[in-house]
Give the backbone structure.
Amino acid sequence: MDLMKLQKERKRISELSEKDDGKSVTIYGWLYDLRDLGKLRFVLIRDVSGEIQVTGFKDKTDKKVYEVMGKTNRESAVVIKGKVKKSDKAPGGREIIPESFEVLAEADDPLPLDVSDFSKTELPKRIDYRFLDLHRRKVQAIFKIQGTLLQAFREYMIDSGGTEGVFPSIISSSSEGGTELYPLKYFEKNAFLSQSCQLYKQMVACSMEKAFAVFTVWRAEKHNTVRHLNESRQYDFEMAFADEFVVMDELAKVVRYMVSEVLKKNEEELNLLEVKLKVPKTKYLTFAEVEKLMKKEKVGMGKHDLSGEAEKKLGELFPDMIVFVHDWPLAGKPFYIMPKPGKKGEELSAGFDAIYRGMEITSGGQRVHIPELLEERLKANGLKPKDFKSYIDSFRYGAPPHAGWGMGVERLTMTILGLQNIREAVLFPRDRERLTP
Ligand code: AMO
């Protein structure tokens, strides 16, 4: 088949309208379903934009075409030429009366998993066959929405003067704490897969004012939970002449923009996934206020951290709000977060977490930009300043106060869509057990 010609002729299913009624069009896609009533054959074709019914009549349709319609396996890739006809009975109000029906790639039968909208196949098996799972409209909807979020993030950042950074994924020392690194051999040296572009985005922001990235991170955490991945992606942001409150405000603005873009562009996908979404408002609480609140609610806290239950409770108490928990205990934040005066024995920091719909989506804060203080903080965290020499030195030549945050790409998709497992929000998840597909 001349695929160049096919690409020119092909109509996307969702674009078929009254204007096409009575006209002959070419569509392609996958055979989603077949109903064979003997004298009539209804074949449902799905492309990435939508679905349409192709109707064959035993006594009128070309014999060969009718035969192929009846014997092609589900999920085979097909090209169909036919007349568009308005039809009240067909789903979507339009059908195609086929003139030709060509199978470009026949799918094996049986399929290893059910790809219907009502599929109950368990997630691990679906991910084993992700390439086929991606035939499902609901799965496609998740990644279409994630695509909108990614685009909206970039749009907002570029429009507000940000520069996109493309950072190294191989690093020489930890940026988030020493225990979660994947070591790798780098010629004669030891190196690691990046846990974050933290140190690099700071260096860029200190010269270019606003830096952002969509960056892949690797964390060798051994636990296997529904909200952790060993390879995940972050929306990263860093801004000069800013403290934590400036960047919390930026976070609220960008998330509000991202959600409003999803509402604008993905109505169909949200309906398919039965998700009710609102542009979030914001709530600011200190860590001490959250402690008090949780005590009242009889919910336990983590050590210098929120527990999973506390995050959930915040989601219940403040629905559809981004809850910023700031003035975080210094002991609960990484070395690069700026200390803040607190009561004796309770040192605070300019670090924060953002909780949305009961889940931590972001952490960030103002950074330490004073070399001597940075050395002190590294030591206090059991790290060696000599391993961070170039990073520390970068603050010796006019590095202004600066702040930023990292927001989980998969976590945000998961919370927005109310997904139960973060693996639903990754095309090809990497967790403790999974390296394929
Ligand atoms: P942190 O480690 O808190 O901070 O990560 C930021 C956000 O990334 C997401 N995230 C994860 N998602 C899935 N699986 C994981 N294992 C995982 N780890 C993190 C979460 C989290 O809130 N450099 C700092 C950010 C900064 O201060 O700029 C950092 O990486 O949504």
